[in-house]
Every structure is written in C-alpha cells, then in structure tokens.
Amino acid sequence: MKIRNSISSHAQRKVFIHENKKEETVLVAIPSLSWSILFSYEEYGDRLITALKESLKHPAGEESEELAHRIAQWTGEM
To answer: Which domain holds residue 33?
Structure first.
C-alpha cells in the first residue's frame, strides 16, 4: 500500500492506494472524505478520470477534478 499526500488550496488529504497485482485491480481510499473506489487495470485512461471525477464530485466538491487527475497519475505510475 502506498500513501500519498494531496495538497491543494482546499485541503491536505491522505490518499491510500493498494494495488492487487493478482486480480489486476487498484483500491484507492481517502478516509477524510469517507470515499473509496476499486477499479481494474483495463479502466486506465480518460474513462478512469471521468469515473473518478463523478465519484468524487459529492464528497470533494471543487477539489474533485484535481484529485481525480492526481489519483490517475499516481495509479498509472504503479
């Protein structure tokens, strides 16, 4: 599991990322937002960013787009 800090003008948040290589999935959680998502390797790309933005829209508000791009970048590096 990797823990990243997302620092924006809105807040500082810890982002927990767990990669399950056997099942080819990634679990991302942000406890301060009570938010998590599980996605497969096949979902990387524009479709993933759109799904992250939609999922984060309610708990993160204005921060959702920035968080979505950071999460996509971090998980793409794994």
So the answer is: 2-76
Greatest Cα pair distance in the chain:
37
pTM for the model stands at 0.89
Structure token digits, residue 75: 């998980």
Tens of pLDDT along 3-17? 999 998 778 999 999
Q: How many domains does the chain have?
A: 1
Structure tokens at 31: 């406890």
CA dihedral of 8, 10, 11, 14, whole degrees rounded to 10: -60
In angstroms, rounded to a whole number, what is the distance separating the alpha carbons of residues 17 and 49?
16
